[in-house]
Amino acid sequence: MAALLDVQNLETKFFTQDGVVNAVNGVSFHVDEGETLGLVGESGCGKSVSMLSVMRLVSPPGRVTGGKVFFEGRDLLTLSEEEMRDLRGNQIAMVFQDPMTSLNPVLTIGQQMAESLRLHMGMTQAQAYKRAIELLEMVNIPEAANRIKDYPFQFSGGMRQRVMIAMGLSCNPKLLIADEPTTALDVTIQAQIIDIVKSLRRELGMAIVWITHDLGVVAGLVDRVQVMYAGFIVERAEVHEFFNNPLHPYSLGLIGSLPRLDARTREKLVPIEGLPPDLIELPKGCPFFARCRYRVAKCQNENPPLKPTRRPGHEVACWVASEKQMEAAQ
Questions:
Q1: Cα–Cα distance measured from residue 276 to residue 25, given in angstroms and rounded to the nearest whole number
Q2: Given pLDDT bands bounded at 50, 70 and 90, which one contains residue 327?
Q3: 216 by DSSP, 3-state: which?
Q4: Confidence (pTM)
């Protein structure tokens, strides 16, 4: 069965006065119908730019410079802008980290939700408002019939993020892209939002790409994990396999820096030393070389390709990605 979304060798660059920023470097991945893919990594690693490229929302000086993006068999990079506008919000929806930058402060929530429903679903004003109330109820907004008359500033941060999710779901998309939607929320509200998304996924059967740097969120939400570093995919695996058997040194660093409830008293977190590479002048070899405690000479001169391991569905881009080799390199 063909994937719902199939990204092949995607490249995106930003042409700045200081030089060309290599933001996304030959990324390939797929998302199947009804599955949730977690896209993880540090800020600036290319997670958001990858999905903005898929949506063709990269603004100048950024530009998609290569690759193909197939959605239900159509290459999105070859569609006209009119065709893309029809597809955005309709078949593919995106929810951003800060809802206040996406919501219009001078329009009521009902007006903003109704606009998309009238545009993509051909509803009348009355039908659109009725559907808007149903959607707000779906994401657990209390007294939804009254709240659609309110403005964004009258909602809390968690409520605004629920509104954004409701707007994203308004046209029954086949794919929802969630770009760090819980980052600015406290952990209690984060858990509520995640529970809502999981419930909606079961109910509606949509696929989700969840972009985050929070591995704790990933563990309880996604089916597969894809780790990005310096614009490259360095590891991907089924979620339980990823946490039980991480192979890339960067993945080991991310997991090792997480606080653990079962940790011994006063056990220190293990940080990842150093800084990510300059994306204008990427190193010739592995982009993680300078920060890696398992590195060998080959890593400095050759960037390892993403290759399958002996475990089904587990791929890693590392020359020394095996437990024995890493122990020997310590």
A1: 15
A2: low
A3: helix
A4: 0.90
Q: Which of 57-71, 103-117, 122-136, 265-279 has the lowest mean pLDDT?
A: 265-279
Peptide bond into 61 cis (omega under 30): yes
Residue 260 has pLDDT above 70, yes or no: no
Contacts of 60 by beta carbon, 8 Å cutoff, 6+ apart: none
Cα gap 67→264, rounded to integer Å: 47
Which sign, positive or negative, has the C-alpha torsion 195, 238, 24, 8?
Answer: negative
Q: Where are the alpha helices (DSSP H) in the chain?
A: 47-54, 81-87, 109-121, 125-138, 144-147, 157-169, 187-204, 215-219, 239-244, 249-256, 297-301, 323-329
Does residue 50 contact residue 27 with C-beta atoms inside 8 Å? yes
Contact 125, 164 (CB under 8 A): no
Interval 76-101: pLDDT, tens = 999 999 999 989 988 999 988 777 77
* Count of helices and strands (H, E) across the chain: 12, 12
C-alpha to C-alpha distance for 324 and 142, rounded to whole angstroms: 55
The DSSP symbol for 317 reads -
How many Å apart are CA 131 and CA 109, to the nearest integer?
13
